[in-house]
Design goal:
Layout (H helix, E strand, L loop, with lengths): L1 H17 L3 H12 L4 H6 L7 H40 L18 H15 L3 E2 L5 E3 H4 L19 E3 L2 E3 L4 H10 L5 E10 L11 E11 L4 H16 L5 E8 L2 E10 L16 E10 L1 H6 L8 E8 H9 L12 H4 L6
Parallel strand pairs: 1-5
Antiparallel strand pairs: 2-4, 3-4, 5-6, 6-10, 7-8, 8-9, 9-10
Helix pairs in contact: 1-4, 2-4, 5-10
């Protein structure tokens, strides 16, 4: 009996020493210690032994099992270290080789200006509201005091997808949706984004451009609040020496409506080629929210008034950076982009 134990132990230890990796070691373990392994099968013989022999036999099997388990554990540690070192060598990084370089892209002037405008108004307590670029006719026109067949719609020749859906022609639908959401409560938002119109393709017009529109609704607002707001914006955007002026205009969603000019940065208002001799450059449109627009969108016009404004992102960028053609924003010319700061 004991000679058989010694033979099994010798064979097991020899197999463990010959195992070259963890998978081979698992095979040895299964051969000797699994439920159907050699050591476990020795225990099945207990039932055939005389009672006085069972104790010694059981102790012998347990000692054999422990010797094999200890040998497996020691060999497993050795092979695990070998496997780890092999993996580290395979994944070793040669730090003597030159590293990969990644080019940092310049910021697009459109996003530079959009972010700067947004930061200015966020600092003035506004929140940003965004909406879909595909919009319903009802929100794009009707709720902004431009019902079907209204002549003001001709000012925004549009890209219709179907009878009731179009690419938004301004970000004003965002304002309409926000008013619908916050009926009869104060509102102070800007809505930056892209808009689309069938426009002339020349150096000052594009079928796609960006806007940042603002809307403030509260009690007892006046044109003076609007002018103070835009004067502060212009000074932060173009410098403390810049002045603004209002000129009467027409927009269906504001009454009264104004065009807003800024004093020319080239001549300080004296008159030059940049401002066409006037000393002023038009930058945005604005006005007091038409009471009918407030009423349609759920506001009590006896209590609330509001003002709104719309700023062309490319228009401001062209003035800030001296860009002569709006089409440069969309031509993917790296030479153009390389003039601007990198991220």
């Amino acid at each position: 009996m004991y000679s058989e134990f010694e033979k099994i132990q010798k064979e097991a230890l020899n197999s463990i020493d010959l195992a070259l990796d963890l998978s081979m070691l698992d095979e040895v373990k299964n051969t000797y210690l699994s439920k159907k392994g050699i050591v476990v099968s020795l225990m099945s013989r207990l039932k055939d032994l005389a009672p006085e022999d069972k104790k010694a036999y059981g102790q012998g099997v347990n000692e054999l099992k422990k010797v094999i388990e200890d040998a497996l554990f020691d060999r497993q540690r050795v092979l695990a270290d070998v496997a780890l070192n092999q993996k580290l060598n395979e994944e070793k990084i040669d730090i003597s080789l030159p590293g990969k370089t990644f080019n940092t892209a310049p910021m697009h002037p459109f996003h530079l200006i959009k972010d700067e405008i947004s930061e200015i108004f966020l600092g003035m307590g506004y929140t940003i509201a965004e909406g879909n670029e595909i919009e319903e006719d009802y929100f794009n026109f009707t709720l902004l005091n431009m019902p079907e067949n209204h002549p003001a719609r001709d000012m925004q020749d549009s890209f219709y997808i179907n009878k009731n859906t179009l690419l938004r022609t301004h970000t004003s639908p965002v304002q309409a949706r926000e008013m619908q959401k916050h009926k009869n409560t104060p509102l102070k938002i800007i809505s930056p984004g892209k808009v689309y119109r069938r426009d002339d393709d020349d150096n000052t017009h594009s079928h796609q451009f960006g806007q940042v529109e603002g809307l403030v609704i509260a009690e007892s607002l006046s044109l003076g609040h609007l002018k103070a707001t835009l004067d502060l914006f212009v000074k932060k955007m173009f410098g403390p020496k810049r002045e603004i002026r209002f000129r009467a205009s027409y927009f269906p969603f504001t009454e009264p409506s104004v065009e807003v000019d800024v004093s020319c940065h080239e001549c300080n208002g004296k008159g030059c080629a940049t401002c066409k001799g006037t000393g002023w450059i038009e930058i945005l449109g604005a006005g007091m929210v038409n009471p009918h627009v407030l009423e349609m969108n759920g506001y009590d016009i006896q209590k609330f008034t509001g003002f709104a404004f719309g700023i062309g992102i490319e228009r401001v960028a062209m003035l800030r950076f001296g860009i002569d053609d709006i089409r440069r924003f969309y031509q993917n010319d790296v030479r153009f982009l390389d003039q601007f700061p990198k991220r």
